[in-house]
Amino acid sequence: MALFLVPSPTDRFQLGIYGFLASFLAAAVPVVQLYISWSTGRLDQIDGSQKGLIGAEFGAAFVLAVLYTLLPRRPDVFHNGKLVDRQFTTTLLERIIFSWGAPLLQYCVKNRGLDLDDLHVLHNRTRSKTLRAQLERRKQSRKLWKALFATHWKTLMAQHILTVIQAFLAFAPQTALLGILRSLEARGTDSYNPVVTWLWVIGLGVLMMTASTVEGWLWWFAGTRLAIPIQVQLGATVFAKSMRRKDIKGTKKKDANAESGTTTPNSATTSNDEEEDEDEVNQQKTRQSIINLVAVDSKRIAEAMSWNYILPSALMKIGIAFAYLISLLGWWATLAGFAVSILVLPANIYAADKYTSSQTNLMKCRDQKTAIVTEVLQGIRQIKFSALEVPWEKRIGEIRRTELRAQWTAFLYDLMLITIWILGPIMLSAVSLAVYATLHGGLSASIAFTSIAIFGSLEMSLAVLPELIGDFIEAWVSICRIDKHLESPEKKQAIIPHDKVAFEDASVAWPADDDTPLEERFVLRNLNLQMPTKGLTVISGKTGSGKSLLLASILGETDILNGVIKTPQPPLLSERFDERATDANWVIDSAIAYVSQTPWIENASIRDNILFGLPFNESRYRKVIHACALTKDLEMFTDGEFTDIGANGINLSGGQKWRVSFARALYSRAGILVLDDIFSAVDAHTGRHLYEQALTGELGQGRTRILVTHHVALCLPRTDYAIFLEDGTAKYVGTIDELRQSGALSSILVK
Q1: Can you say whether the dihedral through the CA atoms of 311, 315, 320, 326 is positive or negative?
Q2: Helices 298-306 and 228-244: crossing angle, nearest 10°?
Q3: CA 146 centroid distance within chain
Q4: Cα separations (Å) of 122 from 127, 130, 298?
Q5: In which band, very low, low, confident or very high, does the pLDDT at 264 lie, cut at 50, 70 and 90?
Q6: Cα distance between residue 523 and residue 509, in whole Å
């Protein structure tokens, strides 16, 4: 029962090991006593009572050892009603031989597969949230490689202890084989003892089982205690950092004429479309770099960390094998064999280098193929309308042929490496045994078979060294890349919680590096704004005047250079209780929903894109569909609202994407809607419908709506507050009545 009182599963497992080892040693003591008495011929001197005590001691210790291996470590543990991973629940024996996963595998065989809900819940220590918190806590101002070692030093230490044990156990079966062969060679002589032969046979089986168990645990440590956790840690940390880091884009000051909205022959090259395209390209590069950090770099680092033991293991095995072979074959035969490996090493290095280069080239070809196929899928409608199938088919076929050539080259060098790995130990053993036979005039079976077995054990150790060095170099490059990402500047949360959206003498700019000169940045200066709660605020201005910058400031996505920005702070997701929301309390006044210039669409159904994780409210959902003019669109689709939109909304037109994104904001519980030019991708009739039924209709009333638009005249009748941006400032600000009295309203409408 004391085992169940230990708080940590790891401590319980260690306690089980310590108890088993203590019991095993206790059981071994009487056996050693009897053996010493037998070997010294004093076995007859032990009387019956002493033998009984020794037997009782052995029996008690043996029973205790069995109990330690067969008692469960703890009862089953559940998390949110689901069974937690049972590796810490099972017995010590089942844990050592990995049979604790057998019930799940049997369930998989019985049901011909597994669903996600069939899997056990991960232990708290292996969950992404816990792993990320551990790494971030140790990262702080450290370099990434130091933080990784500080996080996993216990596992690495245990791994290297097992590595030392495994390095010696790797040659233990060969020792038993040598003993068996020499014992058999002694048959017919006075020195032959069949008991010794059987002991060597039993020892061979035990040593092979022990070596396999230790090697299995090394693989277990490499995969589940290092590779997977480290990759999860790095991926989660990179994504978390990407949410906090500055989204540096559009930081340079636009041409003065472009800012004011005028054009000249020299300044007409700057357009809103070009600026948006440039920002979109920058965003794509940033997204792709983050994906590469997670998918490629983190995997390289995880693999290098998990297989780090192979390098010292290979060096130790080579040293042990060298000493072993010298004792068997002598110096000259051993050196002759290793001389062959030295001669083959340049060919191995050459093949490994060429294989690495061919793999790099192959990955580039695959990236290019993926980029072209993605481009085709995203523009498939335009390609069909323009009848450009044949040129695109040729382009895809060409890159595919290039990829196949690169694949063939990689296979050839891989074949060369495999050939060297297979023939290397054979040539080593052949040369060494030939030299030994020449020097000694013969070769016994014990020497021959044991030497061949030792050379076979060196196969992986000799072949893996060049590849490991290359992998470690790649991992170091990846560590530097991720380290640079993690040390990039972060957004500073300078927004003050308030009951309304307000700017007080604020100057804002797009995020930029700290060393970017202020004169090179586009800045909105001296903003004094009081946007009415539950009213409609319209922001207008010419291209490049900073409308999107103003909206980003409300969302906290900009650098605040001076002054103060105040916005309501939404409740935490855990405090919203969305599943209990009703029509009466659906809208949360402090929550914010944002509709960007580029609609963000999930790869899901239309309905799922609108609900966005919220519970389904039939009446509200139908009102949103009607208000966003999606009723006829849904009737056109075969599956209606359950139509799969596809990646990036590939199955929708531009206007449909906008309306789905706007519908998501309307359906949301947000009391503040931040809308960036929702009328730009729809025709006049649809725009009028969105304005009357959605923006100012039943679903829009009672919400704070902040709208950037060029269609000021459309929104004017129900606008509560208007802002006109020009020359980096809010030139006209106020209610409609105030702007009409000052004469600024006519200027806004004209511009």
Answers
A1: positive
A2: 150
A3: 19
A4: 6, 11, 21
A5: very low
A6: 5
pLDDT score, position 2: 37
**Within 40-127, where are the H helices?**
48-70, 92-96, 102-111
DSSP 667: H
End-to-end alpha carbon distance in the chain: 82
The larger pLDDT score, comparing residue 321 to residue 588, is at: 588
Burial of 330 by CB count in 10 Å (0-12 exposed, 13-18 middle, 19+ buried)?
middle
- Maximal CA-CA distance, the chain: 125
Tokens found for residue 334? 């051993």
Over residues 507-563, the pLDDT tens digits come to 998 887 767 777 778 899 999 999 999 999 999 988 888 898 999 999 888 888 889
Question: Residue written as tokens 């130091």?
Answer: 146
What was the pLDDT predicted at 256?
38
Phi-psi region of 193 (alpha: psi -120 to 50; beta: other; left: phi over 0): beta
Give the residue from 744, 749, 743 showing the smallest Cα distance to 732. 744
Structural Rg of the chain based on CA atoms: 36
CA distances (Å), origin 686, targets 76, 107, 655, 690, 699: 59, 55, 9, 6, 17
Q: Are strands 523-530 and 502-509 parallel, antiparallel or unpaired?
A: antiparallel
Q: Is the per-residue pLDDT at 717 higher than 60?
A: yes
Kindly report the average pLDDT of the chain as a whole number. Answer: 80
Q: Strand 721-726's sheet: what is its strand order?
A: 588-595, 670-676, 704-708, 536-541, 721-726, 729-734
Residue 3 binned pLDDT confidence (cut-offs 50, 70, 90) = very low
Strand order in the sheet with 523-530: 496-497, 559-567, 502-509, 523-530
DSSP H or E stretch at residue 708:
strand 704-708
Answer yes or no: are the C-beta atoms of 51 and 75 closer than 8 Å: no
- What does each C-alpha distance from 261 to 279, 473, 681 come to in angstroms? 19, 52, 21
Eight-state DSSP code of residue 89: T
Task: Please give the DSSP secondary-structure letter assigned to residue 113.
Answer: S
Q: Which residue has the tokens 């004469």?
A: 743
Helix (H) or strand (E) holding 172: helix 172-185
Residue type, 689: H
The number of residues in the chain equals 751
| Cα(696)–Cα(692) distance, integer angstroms | 5
Backbone angles phi, psi at 127, to 5 degrees: -80, 150
| Cα(316)–Cα(320) distance, integer angstroms | 6
Lowest mean pLDDT among 138-147, 558-567, 658-667: 138-147
Residue 472, CB half-sphere, CA atoms under 13 Å: how many? 11
Q: Which residues, in sequence order, are bridge partners of residue 496? A: 566
- Find the mean pLDDT for residues 28-57: 64
Which amino acid is it at 288?
A: Q
**How, if at all, do strands 78-79 and 82-83 pair?**
antiparallel
- Section 171-198 average pLDDT: 80
The first and second tokens of residue 122, run together, are: 């991960």
The one-letter amino acid code at 448 reads A
Residue among 705, 700, 710, 709 nearest 721 (CA):
705
Q: How far is the C-alpha of 36 from the C-alpha of 458, rounded, in Å?
A: 37
**Residue 701 carries which DSSP code?**
T
- Please give the C-alpha separations between residue 283 and each of 185, 254, 286, 288, 513, in angstroms, as whole numbers: 75, 19, 5, 8, 16
Tokens 């050939």 sit on residue:
419
Judge whether residue 491 has pLDDT over 80.
no
Q: What is the pTM of this model?
A: 0.66
C-alpha to C-alpha distance for 386 and 378, rounded to whole angstroms? 14
Stated as kind and residue range, the H or E segment containing 32 is helix 9-39
Is the Cβ–Cβ distance between 237 and 135 less than 8 Å? yes
β-pairing, 670-676 vs 704-708, is parallel
**Tokens representing residue 262 in the block:** 């005028």
User: Taking Cα atoms as reference points, which of 536, 533, 532 lies closest to residue 691?
Assistant: 536
Q: Summarize pLDDT for 660-678 with one digit per residue, the tens.
A: 999 999 999 999 999 998 8
